[in-house]
Specification:
The protein has a domain at 3-243: Nucleotidyltransferase, domain 5 (2-Layer Sandwich). The protein is built from 17 helices and 23 strands. The chain has a seven-stranded mixed β-sheet with strand order 17-18-16-15-21-22-23. It is globular and about 70 Å long. By secondary structure, it is of the alpha+beta class. The chain has helices at residues 47-65, 107-115, 119-126, 135-145, 149-154, 163-171, 181-184, 199-204, 227-230, 242-249, 307-317, 325-330, 370-394, 412-422, 434-446, 453-458, 472-489; strands at residues 3-9, 13-20, 25-32, 44-45, 72-79, 85-88, 98-99, 158-161, 178-180, 190-191, 196-197, 214-216, 219-224, 235-241, 258-262, 266-273, 284-291, 294-303, 340-342, 360-362, 402-405, 426-429, 462-466. Helix 1 crosses helix 6, helix 10 crosses helix 15 and helix 13 (370-394) packs across helix 14 (412-422). The mean pLDDT is 95. It binds adenosine-5'-diphosphate.
Length: 496
């Protein structure tokens, strides 16, 4: 029997899973690590702690499974995206804490670059909206603020990487300084059309070429693990950012196939084929993966507040004691009684992009109850997703069915509401750990544990399909009421 080891380095924990060749999970391990908040708006991780927890999980699953290391044919990595590490090539020691994707310290710098008129140039090359979220300004910040870093970087003594690069550097005993194209595409320094670092953007952000990793395929043997780590070397053969890996794990391998991940927020991606689709509706145009030199592309939209709204119903409002209880509470009423919840707690993401929008609960009457609020909250998650699907269709990539994963997809009522408001079937797979499965698939394909894509498709199976049941009139009325509520929520915190 062949096995594939998949590492899932997330924002709050490191995880590892061992899969057999039928894509069954044999062993799993997880370790949380500290979140560091040095100042308001700053979020850091200790990169050494990331490595320590990740390698501990990897060793644990191999030991607990009893599988001989020689039968582990490949290792795949998926990771929190954009988080930025700068380390010393000689010692492997980071120069500072990693700056996490959520960190807003470089927002001013982005404003300044926007004021100089560079946003359109950046969008054209990278497919991204100029924002502090991506790695470019985080890396520039480290080069500017760690003493001596800029001079050392120019001399070639330092290495930059997103978390995939950082882990592979250590897994390979310092032999490989690489990143896969899906991670490179999130740096805001990478030309997604030509598939190479963008020299003009490197100059704009003042990044020396000498710090950059080599960009490699997402499914290919790029090196092997240092023999001391697991007793024998394992081929490092799959790499992708978390949303790209989840898209692969959902077997969304053809144009028009889409997945939505419902966690704290939502991440919706749709496969757009072998050329990037520029968005007219403020979605991100990004790389899915590259295999045998062939790049596939995605449109991506994110929603800031989804599962976090259910947490707020529990912790802020106290109308449920646990997240799953929201389903029974919402099911007590046949509809939300025209109550609409706009969960713009942290502004609104795609396609609205309003940093000043704030949460709005509107349409309340004397008859409104906690059940109506619970139902309106589930509707809000579904309606935000429907807005993304409309934007994606307007960009020319209509979606015929939506594959779903993430913690909220256990909620059947939400899944039915999603099918009803979007007017497309919603498909929940048996295996909902799609991110880590995607990393395993990418690695296993590279070493022929799975000989072709058909073999992956056969290991993906639906648990349940939620067909749209509501009428078009109902859907239009729901969406019109939602749009009206979104208008009321917009611009609220603009200081006026
Ligand atoms: P993340 O990876 O972002 O931490 P998960 O995929 O683990 O998120 O999903 C957890 C989120 O899903 C939480 O925000 C929680 O409120 C929500 N959630 C969990 N179970 C349910 C449920 N049955 N109904 C609605 N929301 C749920």
């Amino acid at each position: 029997m062949n096995y594939v080891l998949a590492l899932d380095q997330g924002t709050t924990s490191s995880r590892a899973m061992l899969f057999d060749e039928t894509a069954r999970v044999i062993a799993t391990a997880q370790q949380e690590f500290p979140q560091i908040f040095p100042r308001p708006g700053w979020v850091e991780h200790d990169a050494e702690e990331i490595w320590r927890t990740q390698i501990a999980c990897a060793r644990q699953v191999i030991n607990e499974s009893g599988v001989p290391v020689a039968n582990v044919r490949a290792l795949g990595i998926t990771n929190q995206r954009e988080t930025t590490v700068l380390w010393d090539r000689k010692t492997g020691v980071p120069l500072a804490n990693a700056i996490v994707w959520q960190d807003r310290r470089t927002a001013d710098k982005c404003d300044a670059i926007r004021a100089q008129g560079h946003a359109e140039r950046i969008r054209k090359s990278t497919g991204l909206e100029l924002d502090a979220y991506f790695s470019a300004t985080k890396l520039a910040w480290l080069l500017d603020h760690v003493e001596g870093a800029r001079a050392r970087a120019a001399r070639g003594e330092l290495a930059f990487g997103t978390i995939d690069s950082w882990l592979i550097w250590h897994l390979s005993g310092g032999a490989c300084h690489v990143t896969d194209i899906s991670n490179a595409a999130r740096t805001m320094l990478f030309d997604i059309h030509r598939g190479e670092w963008d020299a003009e953007l490197l100059a704009l952000f003042d990044i020396p070429v000498a710090v950059l990793p080599d960009v490699v395929d997402s499914s290919a043997v790029v090196g092997e693990t240092d023999a001391t780590l697991f007793g024998e070397p394992i081929a490092i053969a799959g790499i992708a950012g978390d949303q790209q890996a989840a898209t692969f794990g959902q077997a969304c391998l053809k144009p028009g196939m889409a997945k939505n991940t419902y966690g704290t927020g939502c991440f919706l991606t749709v496969h757009t084929g072998e050329a990037p689709v520029p968005s007219q509706h403020r979605l991100l145009s990004t790389v899915a993966w590259r295999r045998n030199g062939q790049t596939d592309y995605l449109l991506e939209g994110s929603i800031f507040t989804a599962g976090a709204l259910i947490q707020w119903l529990r912790d802020g409002l106290g109308i449920i004691r646990s997240a799953p209880e929201v389903e029974a509470l919402a099911a007590q009423v046949p509809d939300s009684g025209e109550v609409v919840m706009v969960p713009a707690f942290a502004g609104m993401g795609a396609p609205h992009w309003d940093a000043y929008a704030r949460g709005t609960l509107i349409g309340l009457t004397r008859g409104s109850t906690a059940a109506h609020i619970a139902r309106a909250s589930l509707e809000a998650v579904a309606l935000q997703t429907a807005d993304l699907l409309t934007a994606i269709a307007a960009d020319g990539a209509p979606v015929k069915e939506l594959r779903v994963d993430g913690g909220m997809t256990r909620n059947d009522l939400l899944m039915q509401l999603q099918a009803d408001v979007a007017g497309v079937p919603v498909v929940r797979p048996e295996m909902t750990e799609t991110t880590v499965l995607g990393a395993a698939f990418l690695a296993g394909r590279a070493v022929d544990v799975w000989p072709d894509d058909q073999a992956l498709i056969e290991h993906w199976s639906a648990d349940r399909v939620f067909e749209p049941q509501a009428s078009a009139d109902w859907r239009e009325a729901m969406r019109a009421r939602w749009s009206k509520a979104v208008e009321r929520a917009r611009g609220w915190a603009d200081g006026a």
